[in-house]
Amino acid sequence: MEFNEIQYKKPAYRLKAHIKEHLRQYSRLETLPISYDDLLHFKEVVPNYDEDGNNTLWFSAIYDQFETENLYRSLIQIYEKLIHEGDPIPYLSIARVDFCSFGNSKPFRVMVRNEINDNYDYFYVKRADASRVYGLELEEIFSPDKVNYLVHEQTLIEEHVVGVPVDQFILENKDVLIDNRLRFAKEFVKFNERSFIRLLGDMRSYNYVVEITRDFDNVQYRLRAMDFDQQSYEGRLNLYKPQFYKDNYELVKLVQELMTHDVALQYQKMERVAMRRRFTAARKRTQSLLRHMIKDKLTTPENLKRLKKELADFHKDDRFLTVRSVGAVLNLHLERSLNIQILSKAAQ
What we know:
By secondary structure, this protein is of the alpha+beta class. It contains 11 helices and 10 strands. The protein has 2 domains: 17-159, no CATH class; 164-338. Strand 6 and strand 7 form a beta hairpin. Helix 6 crosses helix 7 and helix 9 runs antiparallel to helix 11. The two termini are 37 Å apart.
């Protein structure tokens, strides 16, 4: 098996005014007290280590004492807008602000503490890359999970996705027969299909999580993406299929062990049916999003040319060769994959 390899860092694409109109219509646009750039004014950073003493690549940001009170108050206000539509939540405090220079978005992770029960929650502050925002919207529409995020100018606020990163789950369960293995394999087949159909790339094992739920005397699993930077950016078709990443090989082996090709195809069909139903429930939102996406530049000319050619060959449909944007490519790919009509030819 030939594995995917991403060699180059994706450039960031700024949010333009037209997509902000879509975000305003669907309650994603907010006026917030601080921006991503305000969090960059730290005095120093201290590395964070896990329980085994390994460097996590996250650093605790230390701010000037004079600025800390106002900064933390503003972060609590942002958390209240994200979680509670702005209504005050008593007894909250900011326990820590972490910074990660690894990856495209260079995020801040804010730890919020409830002082009554000592529970913790997290949210993230990032630069608002347009690829990621389109990816979050497509996740909201086509996945079984809801995503919670806000946009302020060029700042993106994201709710924490609860779950175990799949690379960690694989490591912790090496040589272990996990409960309900067939359900886990089924979820990977469906996740693989969903990622491909909505053209979400770079689903290496550390970019999605597994939610584990006890159900009577059994265990249920759900796989959720948590990184959307590579939405519709890559030119190679296999980069949109998690099965072709080396990190996911253990999951591929599990599928091969537990199900036949025909059974895997049946689960793929089930996921397409589910995605078609989700589209029906969010038809106007999908149309609005893709109309805006068609106007945006979200990949390189070289990637766009290759993606059009590979999808034209995959679907045996030369219409892919005539469209001019990756948004139009995605629209046609969704229509062909799910047997639906999203936008009229004139709108494309």
